[in-house]
Amino acid sequence: MVLSVSERTFTQEVLESPIPVLVNFEAPWCGLCRIIHPLLLQFKAQCNEKIKLVDINADDNFKLSTRYRLKSLPTLLLIENGIVRRRLEGFRGREDLLQALEEIKLSYDKSSHPYNTPTTADLGCRSA
């Protein structure tokens, strides 16, 4: 199960988290959000306690949606120490998402520093 975060709990659960957080902005009506959810659960299982995964309903949390300038759903933000380190949106398909998640996972597995920053171009993702 993935922790559901709201505007009320965002600061504590995401910005003040001692570990990096992958934030999944989604909505109940979003078909692609439902398709990627099992992939995100698999990613969470592979990362153990190195990366936290949370869901945010973009419709119910308009201030957060506006603050992070959501253009499409799903949008994934990797936030570490309160800073957006990676933005993943506009998926071209399942493989595109899997590649991006694998790059994130590998960057945490390989380094003593919790995060190496590959560029979004390395992941085939566009930045906002």
Helical fraction: 25-40%
Under CATH, the homologous superfamily reads Glutaredoxin
How many strand segments? Answer: 5
| Strand order in the largest sheet | 1-3-2-4-5
CATH level-1 class? Alpha Beta
User: How many alpha or pi helices?
Assistant: 5
Task: Outline the structure in words.
The protein is an alpha/beta fold and 128 residues long. The protein has one domain: Glutaredoxin (3-Layer(aba) Sandwich). 39% of the residues lie in helices and 20% in strands. It contains five helices and five strands. The chain has a five-stranded mixed beta sheet with strand order 1-3-2-4-5. Helix 2 runs parallel beside helix 4. The longest helix has 17 residues, at 31-47. Residues 112-128 have low confidence and may be disordered.
SSE topology:
Layout: E1 3-4, H1 10-15, E2 21-26, H2 31-47, E3 52-57, H3 62-67, E4 75-80, E5 83-88, H4 94-110, H5 120-123
Helix pairs in contact: 2-4
What would you say about this model in short?
With 128 residues, the protein is an alpha/beta fold.
